[in-house]
Write a structure and sequence with these properties.
Layout lengths: L2 H36 L2 H22 L2 H12 L9 H22 L1 H6 L7 H4 L4 H20 L4 H23 L5 H10 L2 H13 L14 H35 L4 H16 L2 H20 L2 H27 L2 H5 L9 H17 L3 H6 L7 H23 L1 H27 L6 H19 L7 H22 L4 H18 L9
Helix pairs in contact: 1-8, 1-12, 1-13, 2-4, 2-7, 2-11, 2-12, 3-4, 3-7, 3-11, 3-13, 4-7, 7-10, 8-9, 8-10, 11-12, 11-18, 11-19, 12-16, 13-14, 14-16, 14-20, 14-21, 16-19, 18-19, 20-21
Length: about 500
């Protein structure tokens, strides 16, 4: 990979990762502290269910726009022609999706509410407020994907991870001080999702890329047909991923005896698990658009190099963070309400699938932007069907842990299948021997922690000891044996940047 692109990936990944972790911290304050202090578990479940259904609405309304932008914008990119009106062309497709989904939401409202009336009756009262969330989120996804194609990544993360969550914090304080009712809180919590979209539109205008001239679209008919075909297939694939992410919450709310309480616990566990995926999402956010560029250039060498780097980095950071979290799992869950203790093993099972998903890295981006993208529909249908039918079987038996097992099993088989397909068709893969050593070190670290008795009676001292031991056992061998040079080099640059800020010497460039 040329040094400019690798530097771009590292620099923006570093910035987006820092912003994302600040957002995770703010989200933790919201969901794990303020939500638990201010709202009942049922109300927490309601708010998260509205967001989950709104996200599902957004994915239905997106019409496959996000990957369509990544795949085809490189062919139209031309500042003088305003990229041939590609952005307004995509917006027209999305607007059609929004209209159709809004009509469907009202047309089938009774049928949707009926599924939750018995176990989660509060959902039917506030059902309509998932629509503003869905509309705002689909517009955000489109504008964000457009910006990512121009390698403008940080602003979207700031808008969604920081500003939106800070707005949620404000609404929580408003209800805490009894300045607003819970009804008003739900309304405000739905409407604030438009804020990140407005920020991105202002930023697009500032950099001269906000083109809303619908009458000046010059997309050739041949390309329109190809774009529509691709969008239709990717639309189904996107729905599959989102259905998997939302199906658990939807079916838990419908099938478990405690309804929204189960949703509240599971959604909190999902939020905690998402914190461990921040480094991967930061790297993927920057790397995925590069895949489309490499397809345009037919450069399989650079694509495989990027594939390996993203997978190796994701494995080390993802597995490492899971190890550090798992050795302290009882300590961390001790601050939550008693009903959240059921989420410990839910978290474990869920993370098994998430770790494989992170490790497989860019297989989805490579697959969906290739000429064989149509075949991905079979993997997606398998994913949806497996999660759905396993949930029907396992949720009544094991509750929210059953949902986590279903999702993880489906994700593992789904990713392995896609990796084998990409390997067989394009002869590219991400496997390296050093990755096996990283996995063995991670498993050994977990086993040592499981066998070792508590050293300190004080839980804070025990937490510090367990964290230090896990850090030494996992990260030091990787560092000294240079099992993942990219991560090590990245840490060196990060440390050099920090030292430059603390010293009086001229600062080095941000890694």
């Amino acid at each position: 990979m040329n040094s400019f692109l690798m530097g771009l990936v590292q620099k923006d990944a570093f910035r987006t990762m820092i912003v994302s972790y600040l957002g995770i911290l703010l989200g933790y304050i919201n969901k794990v502290v303020l939500f638990l202090v201010i709202l009942t578990t049922e109300q927490i479940g309601l708010v998260n269910l509205l967001v989950s259904v709104g996200t599902l609405f957004a994915q239905f309304a997106s019409m496959g726009a996000t990957f369509t932008i990544w795949k085809f914008l490189p062919f139209f990119r031309n500042q003088e022609t305003r990229h041939r009106g590609f952005f307004p062309f995509i917006l027209l497709i999305v607007f059609a999706g929004i209209i159709l989904c809004t009509i469907a939401s009202f047309r089938y409202r009774g049928e949707i509410e009926a599924m939750y009336l018995e176990k989660s009756p509060l959902f039917s009262v506030y059902y309509i407020w998932m629509v503003p969330i869905g509309i705002a989120y689909v517009l955000f996804m489109v504008v964000e994907s457009y910006l990512r194609s121009f390698y403008h990544n940080v602003i979207a993360v700031v808008a969604y991870e920081l500003i939106l969550r800070f707005a949620v914090t404000i609404t929580l304080f408003l209800i805490w001080f009894d300045w607003i009712s819970f009804d008003t809180f739900v309304v405000l919590n739905s409407l604030i999702y438009i804020i990140p979209t407005l920020i991105l539109l202002v930023y697009l205008n500032r950099i001269g890329e906000l083109n809303l001239q619908f009458n000046k679209m010059v997309i050739p008919k041949r390309f329109r047909k190809i774009i529509f075909q691709f969008s239709a297939f990717y639309y189904i694939n996107t729905l599959g991923i989102v259905l998997v992410n939302s199906l658990d919450l939807l079916m838990i709310g419908q099938m478990t005896a405690n309804g929204l309480i189960g949703v509240g616990v599971y959604s909190t566990v999902v939020f905690v698990a998402s914190a461990l995926q921040v480094p991967y999402r930061s790297v993927f956010r920057i790397s995925a658009p590069l895949v489309a560029e490499y397809w345009k250039q037919r450069d399989f060498g650079k694509m495989q190099e990027l594939y390996k780097k993203v997978s190796s980095v994701s494995l080390v950071i993802g597995f490492g963070m899971f190890v550090l979290f798992w050795v302290n799992i009882e300590f961390l869950f001790s601050f939550l309400r008693p009903e959240f203790q059921a989420g410990i093993w839910t978290f474990f099972f869920l993370m098994m699938g998430k770790l494989i998903d992170m490790y497989c890295g860019l297989n989805g981006a490579i697959f969906i932007t290739s000429k064989k993208f149509r075949y991905d529909i079979f993997f997606t249908l398998f994913l949806i069907g497996t999660v759905f039918f396993l949930n029907l079987w396992l949720i009544p038996k094991w509750g929210i842990s059953g949902a986590a097992i279903s999702t993880s099993f489906a994700l593992i088989v789904y990713n392995i299948g896609r990796v084998i397909f990409v390997w067989y068709i394009y002869k590219i893969h991400f496997f390296e021997r050093s990755q096996l050593y990283v996995i063995l070190i991670g498993v050994a670290t977990l086993l040592v922690n499981a066998w070792m008795p508590n050293v300190f009676a004080n839980k804070w001292l025990e937490m510090l000891f367990d964290t230090g031991l896990a850090t030494v056992l996992f990260f030091l061998p990787i560092y000294f044996f240079r099992l993942e040079p990219e991560t090590i080099g990245y840490l060196h640059k990060g440390w050099a940047f920090i030292k430059s800020k603390l010293a009086s010497d001229p600062p080095v460039e941000l890694p």
